Please model this.
Amino acid sequence: MTLEIGFLGPWQIKVDGQPVRLAGRRRVAVVTRLALDAGRPVTTRQLVADV
Model:
């Protein structure tokens, strides 16, 4: 499974090349925050503070 997240320009999430719809500002904010630290752990405290 390949996950691509584009947040510079139009917001996009693709799984195996297929677009995925993600609704809700908080969900988008969480995914964006996690993408910024891809491959590194993000604590719950960090997520709550940033979102």
Notes: The mean pLDDT is 89. The first strand starts at residue 3 and ends at 6.
